[in-house]
Amino acid sequence: MSRPFFHHAQPYSLADYGWDEAYERAFAPHHAAGLIPARIVRAERGSCEAITAAGIVRAQIPRTTGQGDPLSAPCTGDWAALHPSATGHAPVLDAVLERRTALVRSSASRTSHGQVLAANVDTVVVTVSLASPLNHARTERMLALSWESGARPFVVLTKADACADAQSAAHEVSEVAPGADVLVTSAVTGQGLDTLIAALTGTIVLLGPSGAGKSTLGNRLLGEERLATGAVREVDGKGRHTTAWRELLPLPGGGVLLDTPGLRAIGLHDAQDGLEQTFAEIEHFAQGCRFTDCAHVSEPGCAVLAAVAAGEIPQRRLDSYQRLLRENTYAASRTDARLRADREATKKEITRHLRATYQFRERQ
Predict the structure, then answer these.
(1) Is 260 known to sit in a ligand binding site?
(2) Is 18 marked within a binding site?
(3) Does 292 belong to an annotated binding site?
(4) 211 is in an annotated binding site
């Protein structure tokens, strides 16, 4: 059975999903063209579900939308302009409003394109399970992604009831998360949940690996069991992907929750600013290096290496920083190479077209 274009109306307005005066002003030209505002709550290939003033609708996405650049393709969290539905036809997405923030990772494919995980996010909740050994490198990677997005990151330690010394773990994580609040929570005992709910604002995205407790935490924020949860394997402490797609859900106390599938791989994509914020103490010491292009490897007068020797920066932290910098630099070089190849392909196409035109004229 085909799904209806319009779903039943629900007691939520566009404002509940984050619509404000700034969006209203940005939408003015679309209003004049007879289009209606909507926020994408779930994006699929060729279509999306979006909230409008009339309720949730299922809209078509033209094939040409985002063609050639996945970063511009509509995704969950985007504000869009829709052509109203005609009789017997679904609404059609016409344009996507400029994003305020975007959570972008390197595409899982072999291309050099990035992939937008969520748009117009205000708060990123990086979930770290205390039921498993802490993986600081993964936390640093997720924080770099979060800071780069333009949203405010929180590190939320889940499953505190399964940890013998949660406060010690929180202190340890705080050392690798400068500038981000670190909160200890337990969905079982309720520890820290009131503090977390009071701190979160706007559109909130849960980010973390499978088994970190994102869906369980999301259900506590929603006040009901809306998100599927699954057990963690005892063999390796990993969980299954209980969330299969990204979707927006309004929170009872205000704000919007975006639950994401567990991410096995989080590649960086143009995340230089995010790395500098994540490793702020290294960037601080780097200002004292003798050379402005110091790589902090073996250069004389390197203030970062001096800080490592003095115990002010852990060697593991510097190693992680340099590893992520190399990854980010490589991703940027692939993007530059693709752009050069695209330009060369365009020039060749123009040359072929001109050659065919001249040959046609000569035959006349």
Answers:
(1) no
(2) no
(3) no
(4) yes
- Is 161 within any annotated ligand binding site? yes
142-173 pLDDT, tens per residue?
Answer: 999 999 999 999 999 999 999 999 999 999 99
The answer to whether 213 is annotated as binding is yes
pLDDT of 123 over the 80 cut: yes
- What's the alpha-carbon Rg for the chain, to the nearest Å? 24
Among residues 277, 266, 263, 268, which one has the least CA distance to residue 335?
268
Query: Do 204 and 253 share a domain, yes or no?
Result: yes
pLDDT of residue 241: 41
* CATH number, residue 47: 2.40.50.140
Say if residue 302 carries a ligand binding annotation.
Answer: yes
Is 210 labelled a binding residue?
A: yes
Domain membership of residue 197 as a residue range: 103-259
Span 187-235, pLDDT tens digits? 999 999 999 999 999 999 999 888 888 889 999 999 888 877 655 444 4
How far apart are the C-alpha atoms of 207 and 344, rounded to whole Å? Answer: 38
Residue 54 lies in a domain: yes
158 is in an annotated binding site: yes
296 annotated to a ligand binding site? yes
89-116 pLDDT tens trace: 789 999 999 999 999 988 655 555 788 9
Is 243 in the same domain as 128?
yes
- Is the same domain home to 128 and 239? yes
Structure-token pair, residue 132: 């498993």
Give the count of domains, the chain.
Answer: 2
Is residue 56 domain-shared with residue 143, that is, in the same domain? no
Q: Is 102 annotated as a binding residue?
A: no
Q: Please give the DSSP secondary-structure letter assigned to residue 95.
A: E
In a domain, 267, yes or no: no
Residue 164 DSSP class: S
Q: Is 160 annotated as a binding residue?
A: yes
Distance CA 276, CA 332 (A): 16
Residues 142 and 33 in one domain: no
Q: Which pTM value belongs to this model?
A: 0.82
Does residue 49 sit within a domain? yes
Is 294 assigned a ligand-binding role in the annotation? Answer: yes
Q: How far apart are CA 12 and CA 315, in angstroms?
A: 50
